[in-house]
Amino acid sequence: MKNGICLLIMLSTFILGAAASGQIKKGDSEIDFVGSLNHISGGDETSATAFQLVAGGGHFFVEWVEIGANFSLTKYEGVDAFGTVSGFLSLYPKIEKSDKIAHFIGVQYGHAYGMGDSPTIHGAYCGTKIFVSTGAAITLQPYYSRYEYSHGGVDTYGVLTGISIFF
User: Fold this and answer.
1) Distance CA 121, CA 61 (A)
2) Could you tell me the CA-to-CA distances from 113 to 20, 78, 121 in Å, in that order?
3) CA–CA separation, 165 vs 167, rounded Å?
4) Which among 108, 126, 131, 138 counts the fewest CB atoms within 10 Å?
5) CB-based burial of residue 22 (10 Å sphere; 0-12 exposed, 13-18 middle, 19+ buried)?
6) How far apart are CA 156 and CA 163, in angstroms?
7) Paired strand residues for 41
8) Are strands 82-91 and 120-133 parallel, antiparallel or unpaired?
């Protein structure tokens, strides 16, 4: 099933990407909807899986700098669902008007809510936006995040996939 979804995404980018181009410019805004099935590890604790849905938005203050916020809902195996709110800073290399792919790296910092401990969260990510039409891209974003609790921390990593809309 997982391989079928990846194959569908790859095929759609080749089919739809022919007429698309990455025209990110100063003043653009972006909203994205992504999700992942990922792995968590708490050091000495046993590892588990987690499901995450994220909605976010950002603004390009210059062509290569985006600042914004993300809101997520996360469900760890054996733990009640909780949310996070975080700010992010993404950096994009120079994108030519004809480019169909935009690469980025970034950092995030925020807090979890809906839990007794309300941990802070920080992390880093990188990724690719593959434009399937003018103003719409498929997002592939590997990431690492650390949840810092008063009694220790939990590391999460995975790949967020979804769609980004530019306006």
Assistant:
1) 24
2) 38, 17, 11
3) 7
4) 126
5) buried
6) 22
7) 155
8) unpaired
Q: What is the pTM of this model?
A: 0.76
* 136 membership: H or E segment, kind and range: strand 136-149
Helical spans, DSSP H, in the chain: 2-16
Question: What is the per-residue pLDDT across 106-136, written as a single tens digit (0 to 9) for each?
Answer: 999 998 887 667 788 899 999 999 988 888 9
Is residue 126 within 8 Å of 107, Cβ to Cβ? no
- Name the burial class of residue 90, with classes exposed (0-12), middle (13-18) and buried (19+) by CB atoms within 10 angstroms of its CB: buried
- Rounded Cα–Cα distance for residues 163 and 127 (Å): 13
